[in-house]
Design goal:
The protein is of the alpha/beta class. It has two domains: about 35-170 and about 210-375, no CATH class; about 385-495, no CATH class. The protein is built from 23 helices and 15 strands. The chain has helices at about 20-30, 45-55, 60-70, 80-85, 110-125, 175-185, 190-205, 210-225, 235-255, 255-270, 315-320, 335-340, 350-355, 360-365, 385-395, 405-415, 420-440, 440-445, 450-475, 480-490, 500, 505-510, 515-525, and strands at about 5-10, 90-100, 130-140, 150-155, 155-160, 230, 285, 290-300, 300-305, 310, 325-330, 345-350, 375, 380, 530-535. The chain is globular, with a radius of gyration of 28 Å.
């Protein structure tokens, strides 16, 4: 992999206008989230979390064999093998992140999230020598929202893999994936780091008996296995059997809906909008065709939205107990499944994930499952060396683009024209004169007050029109430079969004290889709200 040097620079997260209010508040801990979480998101609470997990975790004697079974056909690194073995030890705990199996790892935040998880594990292993921490990627292989899974953007090209609608994603066959890999190779044919990776993908996809979850395990293991990252597939018959009593509780007591409703009242008082919508029954059924459909109740009988009948509550519970592998938790029940199976003490996620986890504290309490510490993942952005030079040539820096395109233009004009400062100075002086005049006895208490206000409104309108004419004249003079700023802004924030949410992570992985992963792991500090800029350019501005 490429060993070229990478330079990193951080900015306070609050300077980035694309983060949502709830996300920033949690990241900054600017308000008290105690009613929605068990432990604050910092390392000083890890030992408290360990104590709670030790009291509630009941399947320690199974966990190593679960992973050994899932990895039975995968060649693993010594680090993965060691971590699987250590999971049976009472002093070993996991640090987990989760996501659907996005096509070719999807947008860059996917890679950043996994690197954040590995980083937390490494930091905790260095800090708490009496314990061992294992990074785990929980693959949302049961998700059936294929529109979120089967597309990825590389520069201006979008790759789309056609899959069957409503099918469990991890059980999909690999038909058509070879064509996607061909397109990937064509896009990155000049990136040396891509060639070996593409060949490995071909090997993984050539085993036609493999399902998509198997392919995904091989890919993630190839990228991150040497860091000891474990891949967990929740579509596991034995794990579902262990979790079946809680699925039975869900259909009988509706504990998710009841507890989420209580939590949403608390969130409303805090001014927080819930991220995920709840259902009366938060459980899916997976049929013989691998279609995943919701379970509902009508007049005391249970059935799927597609008509699969389960009969009475007792009959449904019996089906769950005997055929647990055919039932699947939804977005609000899935976290309980994750924490029931894994010896987990911290969950690493983005703003949206943390928001819906905060709806679930009472649900966890009701089932006696420990609620993990919620850590906000790293957010980052790559700045091309040439783009950095273009920004510098305009007398600007990356930070000047964080407040939006109009602010970038204003900053440029302020350094290349006297117009902005002169007009602002004139308006300030004029306002002072108007304020003084409006307080005079002749205006304040005299018959001319209404006339003054009318004339003042006319003056303000005329001044605004004159200002716009002047601004247009100045902009025309600097038209070429301002268009460059527009183009740069679109490159920094593609689709008017953060780069990490739009551009495929393999762009940057192919460019820098393991050097990028190692630097991301190195710089991430979960207790600091910062946005990272990285580039091969020296002297990042």
């Amino acid at each position: 992999m490429d060993n070229q040097e990478l330079h990193f620079k951080s900015f306070p997260a609050e300077k980035i206008s694309y983060f949502k209010k709830n996300d920033l508040e949690y990241w900054l801990q600017s308000i008290d989230f105690d009613p929605l979480i068990e432990q604050k998101p910092n390392f000083q609470h890890i030992e408290n979390q360990i104590n709670v997990k030790q009291k509630t975790y009941s399947i320690r004697h199974h966990i190593s064999s679960i992973f050994n079974q899932q990895y039975s056909n995968t060649k693993v690194s010594d680090a993965v093998k060691e971590n699987i073995e250590k999971l049976s030890d009472e002093r070993t705990f996991s640090i987990c992140c989760a996501h659907q199996p996005l096509l070719l790892t999807g947008p860059a935040y996917f890679i950043y999230k996994i690197c954040s998880t590995i980083s937390v594990s490494k930091q905790l292993n260095n800090k708490f020598l009496n314990y061992h921490f294992v990074p785990v990627f929980y693959c949302g292989a049961e998700d059936h929202d294929l529109l979120e899974i089967n597309e990825v953007n590389f520069f201006s090209q979008k790759l789309s893999w056609r899959q069957e609608v409503n099918k469990v994603s991890g059980r999909q066959n690999l038909d058509g994936l070879d064509e996607i890999i061909d397109q990937l190779e064509s896009i990155f044919k000049f990136e040396l780091n891509s060639q070996l990776f593409v060949q490995k993908l071909r090997n993984f996809s050539s085993l036609k008996e493999n399902q998509y979850a198997d392919f995904y395990r091989e890919m993630i293991n190839d990228m991150f296995g040497h860091y000891g990252l474990l891949f967990f597939n929740p579509d596991d018959t034995f794990c579902k059997h262990l979790f079946s009593p809680i699925m039975c509780n869900e259909v009988e007591a509706r504990f998710t809906q009841n507890n989420v409703l209580r939590t949403e009242k608390i969130m409303s008082q805090m001014g927080i909008v819930p991220q995920a919508g709840h259902r009366e029954i938060n459980l899916f059924y997976i049929d013989e065709q691998d279609d995943r459909t919701r379970i509902i109740e009508t007049n005391g009988r249970f059935h799927t939205t597609e008509g699969q009948d389960f009969g009475t509550l007792e009959h449904l519970k019996e089906r769950i107990s005997k055929e647990a592998q055919n039932f699947s938790p939804n977005v609000l029940l899935r976290p309980l499944y994750q924490e029931f199976i894994l010896p987990n003490v911290a969950f690493v996620g983005g703003g949206a994930e943390i928001s819906y986890w905060m709806q679930l504290r009472l649900s966890f309490q009701s089932q006696n499952i420990s609620f993990p510490i919620l850590l906000r993942r790293l957010s980052a952005q790559y700045l091309d060396k040439n783009l950095n030079e273009q920004i510098s040539a305009l007398g600007l820096n990356f930070e000047d683009f964080l407040d939006g395109e109009s602010k970038s233009k204003e900053k440029y004009l302020s350094t290349h024209s006297k117009f902005p400062s002169n007009i602002h100075s004139f308006k300030d002086q004029l306002q002072q004169s108007i304020d003084a005049l409006s307080q005079s006895d002749e205006i304040k208490s005299g018959p001319q007050q209404q006339t003054f206000e009318i004339e003042l409104k006319k003056l303000q309108n005329q001044l605004h029109q004159f200002e716009n004419k002047l601004l247009k004249s100045v902009q025309e003079k600097h038209d070429i430079q301002l268009k460059k700023i527009e183009k740069i802004h679109k490159q920094i924030f593609p689709q008017d969004n953060l780069q990490e949410r739009v551009q495929g992570g393999l762009i940057f992985y192919f460019k820098f290889g393991d050097t990028l992963l190692e630097k991301l792991i190195q710089v991430y500090q979960p207790e600091v709200a910062e946005y990272w800029l990285y580039s091969e350019a020296t002297g990042l501005e």
